[in-house]
Amino acid sequence: MPHVSAWTATVQSEIDSTQPLREKKTNDFRFSIHLTGNSLWMVVSWPDESRMAFRCAYTPLNDFELISLSEKNSHYLVRFRTVTGDFETRVEIPGKKDQVLHYATAFTPSHDLLIPFSPRDIVPLTKNGDIENTFGKIHLHQVGARSGQLFFSMTKPSVGSVFYFQDLSSLNDFCQDTQTSAAETVGGEWPEIGFRLPPLKDKPLKAGKKVLVSDAYIVCSTDIPGDETEISTSYLEYLSNVYLKLPKPPVVYHDWPGTAEKSLDGLTTHKGCWTFHKGHSYLSAYVSDYKTPPESMVQLAVLIPLMEYAEWQGEKPPVIETLKASIPNFYDSRYGTIVRWLPAMYSQLDQSEEQKKEDVMDSWYLYHPLMNLVKLARTGDAEARRVLLASMEFTIRVAKHFDYEWPVFYHMHTLEAVKEETEPGKGGEKDVPGSYAHLMLEVWELTGEDRFLREAAKAAKKLKGLGMELFYQANNTAFAAGALVRLYKESGDEDYLKQSYVCIAALVKNMQLWECRYGHSAHYPNFFSIFPLNNAPYTAAYEEFEVYTAIHAYLQETKNLKILPALNILLPEFIKYAVHRMPYYYPPLLPEDMLAPEVKTGEIDPNLWMPLEDLYDGWDNAGQVGQEVYGAGTPFGVVPRQYFKFRQPGLLLFIDYPVSSLRRHKNHSVSFRVGGSAELCCTLRLFSEKGQKFKVMSGPGKQKKLLEPVKQQENWLEYEIAGNSQLHVSW
Questions:
Q1: Based on the domain organization, do 275 and 338 belong to the same domain?
Q2: Mean per-residue pLDDT for 673-685?
Q3: Among 14, 236, 359, 379, which one is least packed by beta carbons within 10 Å?
Q4: Which domain holds residue 367?
Q5: What pairs with residue 90 in β-bridges?
Q6: What is the residue-wise DSSP string for 433-446?
């Protein structure tokens, strides 16, 4: 039986002893507002009269006094006060075609105020008996600075499910004034769950200044999801409903082609990016890290997007051949595969970490360079193909040895696990079966050998049953989602498609769907960012970039499929905000005083257009890990995916949503399909080299409507475009 605190034990009796201030029934649910001595409550009653109470406001003094309550079209404004200050709560009860309950509470302290403790804001209620006799299953909760979300089912009594989302963007003033963080504010243990304010022990709220102290969106359901697919799809559905309601930060155009030019210049001329050994030049992983040997992943992580950019640009920079020449040197004939560290420099490994040993492999790292090596082989590079195929037997042997369930680290020679689990009881690198399946599918398409397809299917089966806990590293999970869709298209087995939704849910669970604008975070956008690991305290440039490209690929693979509607809402928005947000990993766009004074690896050059590895929530300095050379490919990958060039009539087209079916027509026009949902918008910008006039129309056939620009300058026009639309640009 769960234990409850004094703040929870009396909740039911206090609510039941009051008459509701207002009550309304909609969609078989009843919503009632109650004011007790210490809390304003929104009580939701299910069709069977089971109830859940949501605390909109709290005072420790038990002296709430109602001032006024007004109502208009299911919107309520409640004003009340206590000796500590004045409260104002706005409540929006869902209508017949809506699922989302919303309330927001502002507080104006009457004097400078410390709040060392606040209770959680969700309490289950019973028809008869004690709260201790209830039981709920928490499917997910906030971790670190990720979204302020909680998804749970009440199973005793068998009631239904609740998705709770605290819009932490609304807490920015609170956190800035009190120098606190909104991280780890939504969670708890049954039956005391939900949101609570960060404790104020040093910096008080200022008297007379109104601040938001809660901004909650709630979806209640009679359904209790069962298996991992139901949990994941319900989560994505509920979150997408809330997302449509959320205030979202504006996006600001960034000159990605200009950033690509500056990054290419820095990459080729900055000595801190390179290591030279025995006649060959290699990229370092971090700027000015001259101690660590070169890594295979680093060379290929930059080379492949650079080749994409060169094709887009129509010019091939010499550094491409330099990087190509380095790849075969990472083949270790003792193992028969490409390895992580340059074999000729094994003696320089300092043994300071498990992976910095000659014979130790990080499981995901064996396969990652090979994924990019496939892409190089597809361009017709014979040496890349030779090294790739020579590596296949070892990579398959490793997979079979571990029965497609990889540890964190293992010995290359004996395949003995060095570190089995990420944490005790948590398993190893659970999403590596997905990245391995991705690699096998790529090699299958390159060679036509069905054994690689069979390997992909064997590995993919190991993802089943892990739920959203399959997430080990964001880019691996994103690759897994794409591999599963490809297996679905090849086999027709819908379980693969459903499992891809589990992967997407695991990614979204680890995203930050709020804009942190306090401390150092005030200097850069961070809405819709993704964290690289389950417990990572920072977002990371390269992993974000790889998730961005993998989501592009996922939407391309599913463009002719009927997929979960929530994905057409969330995934294009992730791409839009990634394009807006990723430039701010670059030090020239950040104040120098927010950069880390001490760096774990190498140095930070604040004038170099290479991304920092790490950005944090609020108060921590950026770049504590280092400045990534292996993240240099970011602009080279963004430009070909978001910019489209038409040399005649000198048109450069930018759009921050994914597009498909782009065609140039003989009648001086271009048409394409914009992805996403019609309920959301993206930005289209047209650049003209010659002052050419353009006309933009939206819609199919004779239903096309002329669009007017929302902004314009001498050489560009900007339009706001609805998602899921057909666009025509003519001149």
A1: yes
A2: 97
A3: 379
A4: 256-639
A5: 77, 104
A6: HHHHHHHHHHHHHH
